[in-house]
Amino acid sequence: MSRIAYVNGRYVPHAQACVHIEDRGYQFADGVYEVCEVWSGKIVDERRHLDRLDRSLGELSIASPMSRAALGFVLREVIRRNRVRDGLVYLQVTRGVAKRDHYFPADGTPPALVVTARAADPRAAEKVADAGVGVITVPENRWDRVDIKTVGLLPNVLAKQKARERGAREAWFVDGDGMVTEGGSTNAWIVTKDGKLVTRPADHGILRGITRQVVLDLAAREGLSVEERAFSVAEALEAKEAFITAASSLVMPVVRIDGRAVGNGHPGSIARNLREKFHEISELEEI
Ligand code: PLP
After folding, report:
1. In this structure, are 179 and 234 located in the same domain?
2. Which of 225, 254, 256, 285 is deepest in the core (most CB within 10 A)?
3. Are residues 116 and 134 in the same domain?
């Protein structure tokens, strides 16, 4: 079955899907994106992702490409046409196409919208989670508006590639005070020896992860205590557990930091429990 993408009003074969060479996303990374999980034939936390999309667009003064209802329709159509039951749906909005010039294009230039979807094997993801993943640490070198989900991800790309080259899956950015901000594509958490969950407050230093918010809700339901504060790499190495969260990996146990074991070197029970129960509390929308 061939994959289908949505590009600026048309559903086209993925292999032939193109954007203009002067799309501002291509030339300036002048755009934003969202990724939603598709789980058991449902879209996960669509409302929250589209709320964050609106916020990202607003922060950059990019117009919405279409109404929320229309966008919901396109997301579903792309998921359906690609027969995705478990996987991800990706959407990207850029400031549109215009002659290359740093200034914003003329009023009325339509934003550009691309939507893709792809299937993923949930069993493969569970295998990764059963083993846990390694992270490396790298100096924070991103701009100070990482709360906006822009497609400008070069520092994240370089950090994650470095992680891969060192046999790890994720890179944690560490700020000038030695505190972990977040991962290249995930939020970072630890569980202290006395069982408290710790994650950095969602200020301008991190992306306000939707999975992070759902895990906070789940932790409250489970009666776990949570401290929203920064933690250092040294504290993480002393922690009982560590994990990362994102729509693309849910709650993923971290078992090594810079090659050193976290806790007993195996996924912790709290991370595993949060992973198992995640979809009990996330919003599941029909496709
Ligand atoms: N932090 C960064 C830098 C990300 O890119 C992502 C997801 O792409 C996240 C955190 C997790 O966000 P969410 O839980 O909304 O997927």
Report:
1. yes
2. 254
3. no
The encoded tokens of residue 73 equal 């329709």
Q: Is 185 in the pocket of ligand 1 (CB under 6 A)?
A: yes
* Closest-lying ligand 1 atom to the alpha carbon of residue 146: 3
Task: Kindly give, in sequence order, each residue whose CB lies less than 8 Å from that of residue 91, ignoring residues fewer than 6 positions away.
Answer: 33, 34, 53, 71, 75, 113, 114, 115
Question: 51: domain range?
Answer: 4-120
What CATH number did the domain enclosing 59 receive? 3.30.470.10
Whether 5 shows a pLDDT value over 90: the answer reads yes
Tell me how far the alpha carbon of residue 159 lies from the centroid of ligand 1, in angstroms: 15
Judge if the beta carbon of residue 246 lies within 6 A of ligand 1: yes
Distance 211 CA to ligand 1 centre (A): 8
Query: Is 8 close to ligand 1, i.e. is its CB under 6 Å away?
Result: no
Give me the DSSP letters along 30-53. -EEEEEEEEETTEEESHHHHHHHH
pLDDT at 203: 84
Active-site annotation, residues: 149
Per the structure, the count of domains in the chain is 2
Q: Indicate whether 239 and 193 sit together in one domain.
A: yes
Residue 277 CA: distances (Å) to CA of 138, 199, 215, 221: 31, 19, 9, 11
Same domain, 54 and 114: yes
Q: Which of 55, 34, 36, 56 is nearest to 45 (CA)?
A: 36
CATH of the domain at 278: 3.20.10.10
**Ligand 1 and 245: CB distance under 6 A:** yes
Strand 87-94 relative to strand 112-119: parallel, antiparallel, unpaired? Answer: antiparallel
For atom 2 of ligand 1, the residue with the nearest CA is 185
Residues 186-226 have pLDDT tens digits of 999 999 999 999 999 998 799 999 999 999 999 999 999 99
Distance 246 CA to ligand 1 centre (A): 5
Q: Do 132 and 269 belong together in one domain?
A: yes
